[in-house]
Design a protein that fits this description.
Helix content: 40-55%
Distance between the termini: 19 Å
CATH architecture: Alpha-Beta Barrel
Strand order of the largest sheet: 3-4-5-6-7-8-9-10
CATH class: Alpha Beta
Order of helices and strands: EEEHEHEHEHEHEHHEHHEH
Number of strands: 10
CATH topology: TIM Barrel
Strand content: 5-15%
């Protein structure tokens, strides 16, 4: 059983300590923090804050994937993310992930200092992302989703979501390996909120231990922070009012086997997970 995740710059241990991946959206329209860090100056200040709070990884994205979002051009996405990645990598030694589905953006981002590629399509939108990962020995996150960019939030629900996610993971892993991506570079994201119903999101979190066992050689990532299913449970709470629910989801995810959590609220998440990790040592 592997206990590390290989990126282009380092081996990141993922057994015994949960990796906290901090979200830094450089977009005007992300569902939770769109527009807040759209300028380079604000983005760099936020990056420094997230690092000071203890983030293990910064996940930087220049294209929103919220429901009803519109695609941006490759040039625009590069324009948004590359200067910030360059600025962070020059000042801090922190793993940077580029959240993109475009190989050309991934290439520019890795050249600027990113060492992980986070592909929400699991190589379905642009399989050449795998070529970029191989070229640079970058970490590669393969997320489960269904449908193209415009329709991935409008898919007809599948009957068995556990079987669907397992099948999707196997297809993405197979495709990545066919390009030469090594298993130690791959992490898997269950894709909470993408092509899944309210009940299916809950089922995946509740049964995450089964997925962790099925794919035990890969670090498992959960990104539930501020997602709409939390707002629904909390009486239609707005994104900014979903902290407590997000912390509960993170705690349950880690208890059930998640190795990485992708979050907006770093300090609060780290404090919450210290309790979870302390308790898990007594299982």
């Amino acid at each position: 059983m592997r206990d590390y995740w290989q990126t282009s710059k380092r081996k990141i241990a993922f057994r015994g300590k949960t990796l906290v991946m901090a979200i830094l959206n450089l977009t005007p329209d992300s569902f939770s923090d769109g527009g807040k860090f759209f300028s380079i100056e604000n983005a760099l200040k936020q990056a420094e804050k997230l690092i000071e709070e203890g983030a293990d990884i910064l996940d930087i994205g220049g294209e929103s994937t919220r429901p009803n979002s519109e695609r941006v051009s490759t040039d625009e996405e590069v324009y948004r993310v590359v200067p910030v990645i360059e600025g962070i990598s020059k000042k801090f030694d922190v793993p940077i992930s580029i959240d993109t589905t475009k190989a050309k953006v991934a290439e520019r981002a890795v050249n600027a200092g990113a060492e992980i590629i986070n592909d929400i399509s699991g190589l379905r939108f642009d399989e050449k992302i795998a070529e970029v990962a191989v070229k640079h020995n970058a970490g590669l996150i393969l997320m489960h989703s269904r449908g193209d960019f415009a329709m991935m939030h409008k898919q007809t629900p599948v009957e068995d979501i556990f079987r669907e996610v397992c099948g999707g993971f196997r297809q993405s892993i197979k495709k990545a390996k066919s390009f030469g991506v090594k298993p130690e570079n791959i992490a898997l994201d269950i894709g909470i909120g993408f092509s899944k119903t309210f009940e299916q999101n809950l089922e995946l979190l509740a049964k995450l231990d089964m997925l962790a066992a099925e794919f035990q050689n890969f670090p498992l990532l959960v990104g539930a922070s501020r997602k709409s299913f939390i707002g629904e449970i909390l009486g239609d709470a707005q994104a900014s009012e979903r902290l407590n629910g997000s912390l509960a989801a993170a705690a349950i995810s880690v208890w059930n086997g998640a190795n990485i959590v992708r979050v907006h609220d770093v300090r609060a998440t780290i404090e919450t997970l210290k309790i979870v990790e302390a308790l898990k040592k007594h299982l």
